[in-house]
Amino acid sequence: MPVRDVRGVKINYEVMGETGPWLALTTGGRRGYAEFIALAQRIAAAGFRVLIHDRRNTGASEVVIDGEEGEETIWADDLYELLDQLGARPAFIGGASSGSRTSLLLYLRHPEAVLGLLLMQPTGGSFAAGRLPENYYGQYIRAASQGGMAAVCETEMYRERIAANPANGPRLMSMDPNHFVEVMQRWLDIFMEGPKEPLIGISAEQLRSISVPTIIIPGNDLTHAGVSGRAAHELIRSSELFDLRIPHQDVPLITYSGWKEHEPTIASAFIDFMRRVVARTAV
Fold this sequence. Notes:
Elements: E1 3-6, E2 9-16, E3 22-26, H1 37-44, E4 49-53, H2 71-85, E5 91-96, H3 98-109, E6 114-120, H4 126-153, H5 156-164, H6 168-173, H7 177-193, H8 204-208, E7 214-217, H9 226-235, E8 239-241, H10 263-282
Parallel strand pairs: 3-4, 3-5, 5-6, 6-7, 7-8
Antiparallel strand pairs: 1-2, 2-4
């Protein structure tokens, strides 16, 4: 698997396809890029080049707990730089859940780099706002405060980071737990201060400012409520809604992996959308 130094962090990535317009897809939560491999392969087979990568602190990329800005803003700027290194800008940008937020932030910070947005399972609402801060940050702040970095390394998420990249073990253990807590608390504060409706971290005003073609596939669980995706569609004037017509489930979370049976439909929708955008821009 290729690795590049992106803003001082070793980022694990893969490119599917050899010719055609570029698409960067970012997974949700802090999951690695593996869950998007099959989707990327389907899209690449239709004549696109698809970049999938492990964001810093995810998958097999390096764990670096540092930075003054919010974690998802850091991810967006990392992806912007990685695209530049690959000669892949401008590109279509998309993802699921937190990957959708990262895609939106990349557009808001670097609109010239984006041909269009492909958003799955947008996150918003009170349930998500209550669940995600603990899931992303609270549990790790407590672990470091109570048991130092050894306790952090014993959490499920960081055990996975070490298993995927053994160099992350000594890297984590060498961190000052007070600095780890300070950065995690900063990221938590930024996350909590951001908008909750219609989407987590993205305001209605920001959504109205989006002018590139956008396709939105709403989610069907409590964290990715369908109403959030539909509300984003109403605010983004250049957007279209693609409804998978699957029932809402009263469960906290359905990851993209839970949509595997719908992957051929999702790939076809994305391919059709991007072909139409490319055709319009070629005129």
